[in-house]
UniProtKB/TrEMBL annotation, chain A:
It comes from the Bacteria. It comes from Jiella mangrovi. NCBIfam families: PRK11650.1. GO terms for molecular function: ATP binding. Pfam families: ABC_tran (PF00005), OB_MalK (PF17912). Signal peptide: none annotated. Keywords: ATP-binding, Nucleotide-binding, Transport. This is Sn-glycerol-3-phosphate ABC transporter ATP-binding protein UgpC. Belongs to the ABC transporter superfamily. Residues 4-234 form the ABC transporter domain.
UniProtKB/TrEMBL annotation, chain B:
It is a multi-pass membrane protein. It comes from Jiella mangrovi. Belongs to the binding-protein-dependent transport system permease family. The keyword Transport applies. InterPro entries: MetI-like (IPR000515), MetI-like_sf (IPR035906). Keywords: Cell membrane, Membrane, Transmembrane, Transmembrane helix, Transport. It comes from the Bacteria. Residues 85-299 form the ABC transmembrane type-1 domain. It is found in: Cell membrane. This is Sugar ABC transporter permease. The chain crosses the membrane at residues 27-53, 89-110, 122-143, 182-200, 221-243, 278-302.
Length: 360, 310
């Protein structure tokens, strides 16, 4: 039985419809990450699960029980807010123990639970402080501590790391992952940070404009994006796209011709009607440059080279369209140089030009 | 500026007039304000305080001499004064309590969204704009069975056996001005509490409701601690204000019946402007001033210790 079942859920704010028939079934102990551009409805979905927003249509089932009309306190969930939402007039220990105190749990048990959580999160020396006497990272830990002292049916996280600096974010990301291993609790995590999504998720839910575009493991979404939106959204630097047309078949295999005259002896087994419009996608890290491009490579002009330390992002142009390649290691090209470029056929993603559906 | 300053340093004795001008400049600028404050406030205050040690009765041409502490000795033995002091405590405590409680409830209601909230907010703040003198007259009429509906309503509800004017009932008379004062003063608390409520972040309430807090618990654990500093200041200000506030009483009951609604402030007013005994009135006023200062000091100390602990 699924821990959380979201069935055909709709949400409107007055006339504005922000979620369209969302279906999602979450297994016990699973770590689900919701990603999508700003305003696509991730927080709204999370808040509906928490009980902070009313459900306009459909139903939400937690632990086998329909919770549409249940207030938040009866859903037994824990949530970590982007702003942390700590109680400013309570100490760290007070913040963490509040939910337990409300449940009238014995004092000794509360003390043990708080001490345990404080230990896990490295907050032990700070338990008597108040939130305003803490740094941003420490506050974030208190917010996590408040969630883990009890045993909720699920953890809800709404961009918990977005107010931290890059370094701290990496560190907390790893801690969240460890915490999840240790507690094994069902989690739903909202972020628009790609790396958080890829590293934390058992399954990623990619959303756009209130609809789910794809649900799958991080590898699935990366290697076989279901449509053009997911392909462009997952991965950084983003996938390159080229408009193309299917040309008359050559020995049973469709041939593809791009606008600037590149031809691909296309992917075996793909049958396409001739002159069908489509979009070819290729990830920057799969573009081969220079020597690696080998025989039959095209000439392109380097626009810009952005070293990232581990490698470099090379911007180049075919005809007049700019693309990016990720080159591992040191890049010796400079802006204005000409460079050999190859796009390996087996790495191509093909999408319908009109509805963006994946074709291969 | 720098140029002229270095010029002066170089030639210290050349232009003494300019140096003098620069030195008195700040005093010249602030002089008008200082003179006005001194003439209309400080001087009368000091003169008024000296009255407490003099025998000043407007209708007695032989009065005016210094009498030392005679006025205070008379005050110490004045039963009317003690009655007024007792009435003041009751008047102030009841008025502040109801103004605060109802003002807070109103603020809580106005803090949640509903259609027409803007208009409701504007209406709620209207009593504040009515002059206290006018609202006193209004309420006196409302309580008067000849022209006002309230006694008839109370009779219909069975609270009263027949429509009478509570303002002429010695046991109930104080409630008349208190009701008027509560009506008139609610907006003050509603405005200040609403402003404080609106500064509480909504996600803290959300976090609490997920932690398992119901509406009452959220009020206790979040709203009250957030409001506490504002409540302390508002209650302090209001208490001092109401203890000094004689308008409604003078207009509605004039201290009667049988001095049962006489508070210290209205007693001062009556002594000074009806009996024209300014010396004695001034002595009472000084005692009231000292009492209110002690009260304020205690509240401030209390607030400081509470804040220091928080
Ligand atoms: N209380 C509200 N009233 C009206 N519209 C709202 C309300 N809350 C959210 N919306 C709208 O619903 C849509 C989805 O908002 P939501 O906060 O879920 O986006 P999000 O995916 O979390 O975005 P972000 O990544 O920026 O946090 C947005 O268009 C937003 O304007
Ligand atoms: Mg959001």
């Amino acid at each position: 039985m699924a821990a959380i079942d979201i069935r055909a859920v709709d949400k409107s704010f007055q006339k504005l419809k922000v979620l369209h028939s969302v279906d999602l079934s979450i297994d016990k102990g699973e770590f689900i990450v919701l990603v999508g551009p700003s305003g696509c409805g991730k927080s709204t979905l999370l808040r509906m699960i928490a009980g902070l927003e009313e459900v306009t249509g459909g139903e939400i089932v937690i632990g086998g029980k329909r919770v549409n009309d249940l207030p938040p306190k009866e859903r037994n969930l824990a949530m970590v807010f982007q702003s942390y939402a700590l109680y400013p007039h309570m100490t760290v220990a007070g913040n963490m123990s509040y939910s337990l105190r409300l449940r009238k749990i014995a004092k000794e048990k509360i003390a043990t639970a708080v001490a345990g959580a404080a230990d896990i999160l490295g907050l032990a020396p700070l338990v008597e402080r108040r939130p305003r006497q803490l740094s941003g990272g420490q506050r974030q830990r208190v917010a996590m501590g408040r969630a883990i002292v009890r045993e909720p049916q699920a953890f809800l996280w709404d961009e918990p790391l977005s107010n931290l600096d890059a370094r701290l974010r990496e560190q907390m990301r790893a801690e969240i992952k460890k915490l999840h291993r240790r507690l094994g609790a069902t989690s739903i995590y909202v972020t628009h940070d790609q790396i958080e999504a890829m590293t934390l998720a058992d399954r990623i839910v990619a959303m756009e404009a209130g609809t789910i575009q794809q649900i799958g493991s991080p590898e699935d979404l990366y290697e076989r994006p279901a449509n053009r939106f997911v392909a462009g959204f997952i991965g950084s630097p983003a996938m390159n796209f080229l408009d193309a047309q299917a040309a008359p078949a050559n020995a049973g295999h469709a041939r593809l011709v791009t606008e600037d005259g590149l031809t691909f002896e296309a992917i075996p087994g793909l049958e396409l009607p001739s002159s069908r419009q489509l979009t070819i996608g290729i990830r920057p890290e799969h573009v081969l440059l220079g020597e690696a491009a080998g025989e039959g490579a095209k000439e392109a002009t380097v626009d810009l080279v952005e070293p990232t330390g581990m490698g470099a992002i090379v911007h180049f142009r075919f005809a007049d369209i700019s693309h990016q390649a990720y080159h591992l290691g040191r890049a010796s090209w400079r802006a204005g140089d000409s460079v050999k470029v190859a796009l390996p056929t087996e790495r191509l993603h093909l999408f319908d030009a009109t509805d963006g559906r994946r074709l291969n | 500026m720098t140029a002229s300053a270095s010029l002066e340093q170089a030639q210290p004795d050349r232009r003494p007039l300019k140096r003098l001008g620069l030195r008195v400049e700040p005093y010249l600028y602030s002089a008008p304000a200082v003179i006005i404050v001194a003439t209309v406030m400080l001087v009368p205050l000091v003169i008024g305080m000296t009255y407490a040690f003099r025998d000043i009765r407007l209708l007695n041409p032989f009065s005016g001499g210094f009498v030392g502490l005679d006025n205070f000795r008379r005050l110490a033995a004045d039963g009317d004064f003690y009655l007024a002091l007792k009435n003041t405590v009751f008047w102030t405590a009841a008025s502040v309590f109801f103004q605060f409680t109802l003002g807070l409830i109103l603020a809580l209601l106005l803090n949640r969204p509903f259609a027409g909230r803007g208009i409701a907010q504007a209406l709620v703040f209207l009593p504040w704009a009515v002059p206290s003198f006018l609202s006193g007259l209004d309420w006196a009429w409302l309580f008067n069975p000849v022209v006002g509906p309230i006694p008839h309503w109370l009779t219909a509800l069975g609270v009263m056996s027949q429509p009478e004017n509570i303002l002429s009932d010695p046991d109930l008379a104080m409630w008349g001005p208190i009701v008027a004062n509560v009506w008139w003063g609610i907006p003050f608390f509603a405005i200040t509490m609403l402003a404080a409520l609106q500064s509480i972040p909504a996600d803290i309430y959300e976090a609490a409701s997920i932690d398992g807090a119901g509406p009452f618990e959220r009020f206790r654990a979040i709203t009250l601690p957030f409001l506490a500093p504002t409540i302390a200041i508002a209650v302090l200000l209001r208490t001092v204000w109401i203890a000094n506030f004689a308008d409604l009483i003078v207009v509605m009951t004039n201290g009667g019946p049988a001095d049962r609604t006489q508070i210290v402030a209205s007693y001062i007013f009556t002594t000074a402007f009806r009996r024209l005994d300014f010396g004695y009135a001034s002595a009472i006023a000084m005692v009231l001033l000292v009492l209110l200062m002690i009260y304020s000091l205690l509240i401030v100390i209390l607030r400081q210790t509470l804040l220091a602990r928080a």
